[in-house]
């Protein structure tokens, strides 16, 4: 199992502030004979519909030397986890999100890379502020711009 991302606790606190209950840390999945570990599993009870919304969140900090290299790794990981969730008998109802720091999202959006990739690979983003420990934005591929 990999070490926690440096912003793990910031994202966890942001989810809690947003009304989520962290249920798994990490969320364990299988793909073939391999075990995979998504950073967080969380759920939010939606009282109006009496239905639970469940998510899985993979947290990335992008502290490496190259933003593009970090993005390549993050997208590959996201795709593996997305497939593992689809194959899971108990977790397939979870919606997967890639959690990225706000400054990285702004940089990649300015470069026009992020909207292209999120739409092409159908990546859900959770944009967070590491310093404020808040969720800045939830982005789905059809609404990313």
Portion of residues within helices: 25-40%
CATH architecture: 3-Layer(aba) Sandwich
User: Could you say what the CATH topology is called?
Assistant: Trna Endonuclease, Chain: A, domain 1
Shape: globular
* Low confidence ranges: none
Reading the helices and strands in chain order gives HEEEEEHEHHEE
Question: Kindly state the mean pLDDT as a whole number?
Answer: 90
Query: Distance N terminus to C terminus?
Result: 34 Å
- The oligomerization state is single chain
In CATH, what is the class?
Answer: Alpha Beta
Helical region count?
Answer: 4
Q: Tally the beta strands.
A: 8
Strand order of the main beta sheet, please?
Answer: 1-4-5-6-7-8
How would a textbook summarize the main sheet?
6 strands, mixed
Q: Rg from C-alpha positions?
A: 15 Å
* Number of domains as seen in the coordinates: 1
The chain-level structural class is alpha/beta
As a percent range, the share of strand residues is: 25-35%
